[in-house]
Amino acid sequence: MLSSDLDPPQLSERCIEGSLDLINQAREELERGDLRQASEKIWESCALVIKAYAAWKHNRRIKSHAELWIYKDEVARELGSEVPGWPQIQCIRTSMRELRQLAISAMRPLRWRNLLNL
Length: 118
Known about the structure:
The chain has 118 residues and is mainly α. It has one domain (3-115). It has helices spanning 8-32, 35-58, 65-79, 86-115. The longest helix has 30 residues, at 86-115. It is globular.
């Protein structure tokens, strides 16, 4: 069944299930030492949580990255600092962005060495 065929509560549930699955995949990637893939999985998991909230709370389907970025700001304003742990969530978000950049930066020299057969 395609997500477009699901009603909002079903879509929300499907997004949460997908998010949890991605978190487990991220753990496995971390155990293998693949920080880049782990950070990608965490990012995707967060995006699915935002989509789940949109479907559950506002009967809304997020269909693009641009819409996701706009909506996450709406949610942040809506929830504000009333959410327990919000400062920690913001810190984790910043850390994940930095971790992803670090992983990408670390991979660049490896790619060049591989391309040059060093």
